[in-house]
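Worked Example 4.2. Consider the chain below.
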Amino acid sequence: MAVGDVVNAIGSATGDFTYTPAAGVEVMVLSVLGSANGQAWLARVAAPAQSGRLYIQQGTIFQPIGLNVKMAINNTIYLQVNSNTYPAAFSGIQIK
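Applying the procedure from the previous section yields the following structure tokens:
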């Protein structure tokens, strides 16, 4: 892939969905989709569970995550989305 290419992914099941770019690649996340009661966060690679997380959105019981953001991620700071009723997804653009 090259700079300017669209990057997106859809999880195959409910639960935690993780996207980590390859080493040397940076992606600008533009949109995240998760379910009601789900969460989206940026996390550090190899961080212990529940630590090293920056929560960027948390759904409520009635409102699913439908998040429009502009957050850069790379191989060290990556994207995780928890979705408990349907698979999570995200879309972005490769910037490096």
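The domain at 6-94 is CATH 2.60.120.340 (Jelly Rolls). The mean pLDDT is 77. Compare this with Example 4.1 before moving on.
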